[in-house]
Design brief:
Length: 245
Amino acid sequence: MDIFVNLVLKNPIYWIIIILGLISTIFYKKIVGKAGEYWVKKELNLLPKDYKILNDIMLYSNNYYHQIDHIVVSKYGIFVIETKKYNGYIEGNEYDKKWLQNKKYYINNPIHQNYGHVKCLESVLNLDNNKFIPIVCIPSPVKLKIKAEKNLVLDLNTLNKTILSFNEEIIDNPSDIYRMLVFHNVKDREERKKHINATRKIIKEKEIESINKCPKCGGDLVLRESKYGKFLGCSNYPRCKYIKR
């Protein structure tokens, strides 16, 4: 132990490694999220030039800020893309409050978040819902078993191919829409910071609220007892069989 301490004190490179390790641990989720957005952005840049791409757009509508990962504007529709960096096996359907990851962890359904983005764009652009194609893209090794009809859940390899599969012209003025989104994009750092802080506060409040809620269906968790001991079970049993030990 003393030898290790002396090595660290005498070699600044060890301090740098330790500090970088701490920073990576603290900001892991943010780093992973940004990496996912980077790969999606890089893939979208391979689309034909008449597809107008916007990344990390923040819009204000109905007293709320909405931060949208990617928007692709084309004459074939406006693609609203939410990027999520998941790994493993993901299953669920578009109406579930939570999805199941690796058959043991529950994660928030990103389709719900993207729905809010679409409603924001409807308001800002004054367009009907049928002009938008909502997509959740997962740019990481993942196996998907998602039942969805109105929303697309894709991996990175099928993203551009899916976008290019839409060939019915439904947008008359894609260039005007692109310019309008650029105009409404919130660029002020302080405004963006306020939104991020407000979002973190809401997430924290929801996490506290969800402690005694079933992550699968949203029902109350109640204390039950079996021959194996006490456990928390969903109040919607037998329809929902979630158990928290």
